[in-house]
Specification:
mainly alpha
Length: 42
């Protein structure tokens, strides 16, 4: 049971951490899939 809890916790930490790192590096889906005529909200 403890292994499942640790695995779920590791999944959350890795997901949130990778999201933060990729967004700070400029890899967001909004920036990659929008054209120059699209207005993006900040």
């Amino acid at each position: 049971m403890r292994a499942i809890i640790y695995a779920a916790l590791a999944l959350v930490v890795i997901s949130v951490g990778s999201n933060v790192v990729l967004r700070s590096a400029g890899f967001s889906i909004e920036e990659k899939t929008s054209g120059p005529a699209v207005r993006l909200g900040n």
